[in-house]
Amino acid sequence: MARLVKELMSTDCVTATLLDNVYELAVLMKDHNIGFVPIVDGKKLIGVVTDRDLVVRGYAEKHSGSTAVAEVITKDVVTIDAKTTVDEAGKLMASHQIRRLPVVENGNLVGIVAIGDLAVREVFVDEAGDALSSISQEMHNEQQTIVH
């Protein structure tokens, strides 16, 4: 059975609102070690701001730290439903060349799935299994060598 986005997504999302400014977003990103902040009105997702947005639309345009979020926000956001399969999420990320997808239900933000979530939970499971098999085989071979 295919794994679903809801099994992998982060639900403890750091968010901001249109009342915040560029400086406050930068501090949120620094304090939480993140590069992506969903902008919400209540729980309704209205856009996102990435660290790149802050640089390209904010500081590179000589906006000050007090510049409103509205000046740097990306409103045309690709989102995903929690019941989408992990494979579909990966394809969507690849086709749009994005690393994070807000997960929404009825327009409300319910989580975020990142490309790292897909990699850690899907790809590395196979790699970990292969590595464990390899380690087990090496130990078995060493034990045979010691016995003889």
Walk me through this protein's architecture.
- By secondary structure, the protein is an alpha+beta fold.
- Helix content is 43%, strand content 18%.
- A two-stranded antiparallel sheet has the order 1-2.
- A hairpin with a 2-residue loop joins strand 1 and strand 2.
Structural features:
elongated, CBS_dom, two-stranded antiparallel sheet, alpha+beta, single chain, CBS-domain, Diverse_CBS-Domain, 148 residues, CBS domain-containing protein
What sort of overall outline do the alpha carbons produce when their principal axes are compared? elongated
Strand content: 15-25%
Top-tier CATH class: Alpha Beta
What is the CATH architecture descriptor? Roll
Element pattern in H and E: HEEHHEEH
Number of helices: 4
Q: What number of structural domains do the residues give?
A: 1
Please provide the count of β strands. Answer: 4
Strand order of the largest sheet: 1-2
CATH topology: CBS-domain
Summarize the helices and strands and which ones pair or pack.
Blueprint: H1 22-32, E1 36-41, E2 44-50, H2 51-58, H3 86-96, E3 100-105, E4 108-114, H4 115-147
Antiparallel strand pairs: 1-2, 3-4
Structure summarized in a few sentences:
By secondary structure, the chain is an alpha+beta fold. It has one domain: CBS-domain (Roll), CATH 3.10.580.
